[in-house]
Amino acid sequence: MGKSRQSAGNSLFLRNAWYAGGFAEELDTQPMFSRKILGESVLFYRDRNGTPAAIGNLCPHRFAPLDRGTVVDGQVRCGYHGLGFDRTGKCVHNPHGKTAGLAVAAYPLAVRHGILWLWMGDAGKVDYDLLPRFPSLEEDRFHVRRGYLHGEANYQLMSDNILDLSHIEFLHPALGTDAVSRAKVETTHDERTVTTTRRMLDEVLPPTLAKVYKSGEERVNRTMEVVWSAPSNMLLAITVEPVDEAQNWTTGAQSLHLFTPETDTSAHYFYLASLDREVQDAHTADAFAAALKRAFIEEDKAMIDAQAKAIGHAEIMDLKPALLPIDKAAVLARRKLQKLIADEVAGVAANSSQSVSTMAEGTV
Ligand code: FES
Ligand SMILES: [Fe+2]
What we know:
The protein is α+β, with helices and mostly antiparallel strands. The chain has two domains: 18-130, Rieske [2Fe-2S] iron-sulphur domain (Rieske Iron-sulfur Protein, 3-layer Sandwich), CATH 2.102.10.10; 141-337, Naphthalene 1,2-dioxygenase Alpha Subunit, Chain A, domain 1. 21% of the residues lie in helices and 33% in strands. It is built from six helices and 18 strands. It has a seven-stranded antiparallel beta sheet. A hairpin with an 8-residue loop joins strand 16 and strand 17. The longest helix has 29 residues, at 282-310. The chain starts with 17 loop residues before the first strand and ends in a 14-residue tail after the last helix. The protein binds FE2/S2 (inorganic) cluster and fe (ii) ion. The site of FE2/S2 (inorganic) cluster (FES) has 9 residues, from loops.
């Protein structure tokens, strides 16, 4: 169904961008792990200094996955015939003789907020100004809870889902009231972001949320602000305040939804929930993260995977969906991403005769 897509790892994705590739803590319990990102199998490990690094996971000799090997003196040693690679991807160890120019890919990698951020494009164009910074992940101010899900859908369907939270009332009965779809929504945007704000007035929160926000039976106003940043990082900030202005309290939560394409038809979903240490305790943060996880797995993921399967993983906009006003933010984000990708492809074509510099690295 729909036009055939180009193979993964090309212009379908914005390449000159930072993608969440994993959590740094994943390297605390294992010397290395691999994950497919934008169609490429990437191996994460720590070099001799303990600094995370990312290189191609397929050995150039007989294409054995390097994740079946070991890390020795900061090098990845292939488990098949022992070739060794350093963090620049260069083969620096060959028990069978001389090595001339053997190498795997090396990916610029930066660690921020405990997230392994990968630059999947031109290493000569690495832009640290684009590296996402999220104040809600400062652990001295917030209880931060992390989780991971795998989605059997294109990552943009997952962004669409967060950009239109009217679905809460229908898909997440434990989290929504009819104030959600009645809400006033405002959307603003610039070149790389779309912000959509949903203001829900005068509702009594359902019990699961009333417990998190300690609102009890109180009538409250709830605001949900979603900021999408290209290519697919989303910050959702929720604020809850009593309708009765004589009362003086505000509470809320923030969550991050980082979608990284695995392939054209599947995605990694890294999520992080943050609750203010001054207002909520660690136990509430655990309960909130558990409720989110349950909603993601049983409701969002179940629906989005089914939606992707139903359309045969076609590009949804090619199918001319019936667009409603609630789709405004998602459509805007898709257009922006499409333009960024088109500009990048045009730029790559114009610069194709230039040589590509070797990898950069950084822990920021
Ligand atoms: S396949 Fe890796 S050394 Fe032979
Ligand atoms: Fe949802």
